[in-house]
Amino acid sequence: QHPSFHLAVHYKYPSLYLHASTTRRACNSGQLDRGRNQATPARARLPVGRALYYHTMVQLLVTVATAVLLLVAGATAQRQGCENATFPAGRSFERCNTLPVLGASLHWTYHAANGTAELAFRATSGSAGWVAWGINPSGAGMPGSNVFVASQGGRGAVSVLTTILRSTAPALDNTTLQFDVPVPPTAEYAAGAYTIYTTVALPGNSTQQNTVWQAGPLSGGDILPHPTSGPNLQSLMRLDFLSG
User: Which residues form the DOMON domain (predicted)?
Assistant: First the structure.
């Protein structure tokens, strides 16, 4: 720049010149707007081991939360699947479960005062078939189960057999069960399904019971063995009659 211009500016606008000079020096020295250009301190980092621990815990919590949601959703779906069921003669039940196999559902009302459960077991079946539901007081599985078996005779009349399955090839004789049955069982066949009605005194006065159910074919009104594979081997469940 020309020296005379420099002096003129300084003479006429001394404050402007001072500011410009100061700004230029600040820029040259890297000190302009120190607050804006100041280096940000490095963020503290977690040790690798602790970071891995936190990451693992988060994954575990997500997994547990997902499992809980799936269980709740499954239980809700089971209730919704059986809550739409209707029964004749104004019958109704407080709880129900859609059972996982054989197109079956269980409906019941638990009476804590006397330890009984008023129930209805419903399962889809052809007219040339039979269905059964029961409780095993001695353990899980079919052998030892006390069951109610519904079937149709030659003329279409529906009857209920009460028997104890003492082996995997039981003699289906009409037998008194090992727990009280205050209301004798009855059954009906309608809309492609059997429904067994009864009231049972829960063994040991316990709400938690090993329950079983089954379905198989008929021949001339006689009960034939059920299939021994697939869903017919999965039809058992530990059930709490108080909570469902």
Answer: 102-216
